[in-house]
Amino acid sequence: MEIIRVIPQGYCQGVVRAIHIVKKTIDENPNVPIAMLGMIVHNRAVVNACRQCGISVLDHPHKTRLQLLDAVQEGIVIFTAHGVSDAVYEKARGKGLQIVDATCPDVRRTHDLVRAHCRKGDVLYIGKRFHPEAEGICGISGRVHLIADPGDLETCGPLQNPLITTQTTLSQLDAAALIALCRKKWPEAIVAPEICRATTIRQNAILNLQAVDLLLVVGDPRSNNSRQLCEIGKAAGIPNNILLENALQLRKEDFLSYEKIAVTSGSSTPPVLTEQVLDVLRNYAENRIWRVPEHLPSIF
């Protein structure tokens, strides 16, 4: 059995920055209540580490960031790496809350692009329905139209000076397909894809793999960028793709039939979790000893 570490993988700079902001906020405000609107990044281990540090993490699958803010009455509110709409900012300020903004710079750039274009035209935003990044972008203006699948194109009426852009963590293959459909209906549209560089190079690293039996992606199932790595693996012709959160989920019988295993991780996955997975697989490949850890390492 050969184990290949896919390079690059794991934390992107936006995630590193967001986690640094959270840790700094905790350290500098020991006696102040801190609430977080949603998951700082889509990884359960990171969110659990935040809770262990005393942060109240507010998350609900059927509530927007604006609705989640109703539960915060005092202290500090942290906006996650995915960004929020202007309405969330205004509501937080109106409640007298101290705002700590951990929005990824790439997401902020998309906000600026969309906000500027909405002054002169409509925006076709290719993104995931119910994803917090898409929620923040679509909250900028009624001129932003979410395109999550081809059916959404049918609901768009006449558009003025349309711009096509994207969520930062999409599959570049899926995004290209939807962009082509948008351009077919609106050939005059300007195209400004915003899939971030970190997402692109991690996907390209998988597309460039050769003769791999299995792609193992370490990441939270709620992480869009992690799920997309599995989808890219399928598109690359890799016959088997597994997404798991950590080494505790490894089962020996799942790996016995593979000769060449590539391991990568989502950009919101703590590197220590991926290292644990690699240690288990390498130990078996080199020594034929299968030893899964009993505990997960500390994230912070």
Quick synopsis:
Helix content is 38%, strand content 17%.
Name some characteristics of this structure.
single chain, 300 residues, alpha/beta, four-stranded parallel β-sheet, 10 helices, flat
Task: Give your account of this protein's structure.
- With 300 residues, the protein is an alpha/beta fold.
- The protein is built from 10 helices and 12 strands.
- It has helices at residues 13-28, 44-52, 65-68, 86-94, 105-118, 132-138, 172-185, 197-207, 224-235, 271-287, and strands spanning 2-5, 34-37, 56-58, 76-79, 98-101, 123-126, 144-147, 163-166, 190-192, 214-218, 240-244, 260-265.
- It has a 4-stranded parallel sheet, sandwiched between helices. A 4-stranded parallel sheet has the order 3-2-4-5, with helices on both faces.
- Strand 6 (123-126), helix 6 (132-138) and strand 7 (144-147) form a beta-alpha-beta unit.
- The two termini are 33 Å apart.
- H/E element string? EHEHEHEHEHEHEEHEHEHEEH
Describe the global form.
flat
What would you report as the Rg, rounded to the nearest angstrom?
Answer: 21 Å
Q: In DSSP terms, counting alpha (H) and pi (I) runs of 4 or more, how many helices?
A: 10
Total DSSP E strands: 12
